[in-house]
């Protein structure tokens, strides 16, 4: 009896499952609706909040400030971008890009051996220690780290004391006497800014690099040396090309983070502005939002090119 | 009832004619408190014992009046102006660069000094100060003020420097070494005014009458002076605590500074002192001002009275290293401050101080040809960058 009733309802079981069942049916018949429903919130977020604010920023940069009253003039113009080409502003852009490039190169050089050791040789407890060592600085406050570095690099700081103790102070003095990269002490020189940038962003280089190196099959390296390649040739022709996507991925972090930072150069360095600081001071009391916006567009454009090049080099193939 | 109505309408009419209908009339009489007051203030200006239990000038006020004090901190004058434009606040502790902007923007209401019993105690030098008084109408009660002093290392300078030249021109300091790399300057465009103030005394031919009103020639001379200064300065100071660190660890021996840093460094036993050199100094003065659409006017008036009559100014003077708008707060023991403490903070140097105002192109002293503030910003960036 019971059986026959079931039979009569036929193969479609949905009828008795209420609203939830009906909705699930609709989704099953028209998968597009489900897709739309799931994608709309994140797309709205991306479109309105993220892209929208970027566009608002871009729009601001096409306005200009009235020279006489200091009020913002809401007519589209390229005048503000012209101001970016002032020698003083161009200095800021070049200074920032150069610093970002040098920091990136240096972090590649410092991070490679660390990442290579961690990927190839470290096992068990050592591997855990390695992760801890790389991640530990990320767990403490960014500001505290920078202030700590200020004390290390100061004229009466730890490093100076060490050089004096080892009777090598003349070496430091000779270095600081070099124009441009030197200064009154390490903490007020570009060298100091560079060292702190390098320290703060290094983990962002080590981790993607290590991930890439772990994916390079060990037998490739063995084959290379079996075939008579010197260690340098193996590195140059086998290891580096295969690890390159990781290197580039890491460099995207270090480069863009240096490009946008405005705290480190404010605390360590010679007070010469970087892009982030310029944005900060123009949008503050000055009320020159158009110029601040134009300044922000610079790193966006630079990173756009950078990512495009990285894509061509295959940095995103592994994603 | 009719008399009150009459009084109100007379006041409204009078103020309509006086202020050409722009402002809401000032309050004629005080009623009961509304239960709250909303204040926009500089960080550290309104303490309720949460940062340090000894510094509390809110709790007692709340107990006495039943007005709950709600504070919104603002870090720059622009933030203050923006918040007041948004509305929803009763009071603001505005500095000289924001106050006139707020009055011009019709965001403030004239206050009735008769409703503030302690108005008579206010420093006579501040009662009619131009940053809160327009056409004889008062737009607030003076709060705190302070000078930008010259801080120096007492081991290097046995006697206080008498001129700002120690930070502007290359020279040999009393300890026989050059000042190169051992002096600092403020990392804000307003420092151009300090250079102009120095030129006012040393280059009278330029005809500078106010360091905040500079015509293009005077402005250029000030920038040239700052370019020379750039060669002496290793790092400009921006954050008060970094400057203190630079004095203790970086070998800096002289710099423009605030009494705040001097007090803290001295309390830590550092060998520093401060002075206001012969050229005078720049400084700041804040005023408690009332929003035109204040929803809690009675509590707002009570708070203004409280700032003038309680321990507030005396304790805040210790806390912030500033001077009270009521001189008695230094001497009558209502709070922690003492006469000596106020002298350290610069209480006696009022006449030497050119109070901070925002440079605008329309200026009286130079026939409306002044260089506006936004150019100060971009040019000062250039100077620090070595241009």
Structure report:
The complex is a heterodimer of chains A (319) and B (387). In chain A, β1 and β2 form a beta hairpin. The longest helix of chain A has 34 residues, at 87-120. Chain A is mainly α and 319 residues long. The model of chain A has no long low-confidence stretch (mean pLDDT 86). In chain A, strands 1-2 form a two-stranded antiparallel ribbon. Chain A has helices at 2-9, 18-29, 31-61, 79-84, 87-120, 124-139, 142-153, 158-165, 169-176, 190-214, 218-226, 231-260, 264-267, 275-283, 289-312; strands spanning 64-65, 72-73. With 387 residues, chain B is of the alpha/beta class. Chain B folds into 2 domains: 2-145 and 284-349, Periplasmic binding protein-like II (D-Maltodextrin-Binding Protein, domain 2, 3-Layer(aba) Sandwich); 147-282 and 355-384, Periplasmic binding protein-like II (D-Maltodextrin-Binding Protein, domain 2), CATH 3.40.190.10. Chain B contains 15 helices and 13 strands. In chain B, a hairpin with a 2-residue loop joins β4 (133-134) and β5 (137-138). The longest helix of chain B is centred in the first third of the chain and has 17 residues, at 2-18. Chain B is globular and about 65 Å long. At the A-B interface, α5, α7 and α14 of A face α9 and α15 of B.
Concise description?
The complex is a heterodimer of chains A (319) and B (387). Chain A is mostly helical and 319 residues long.
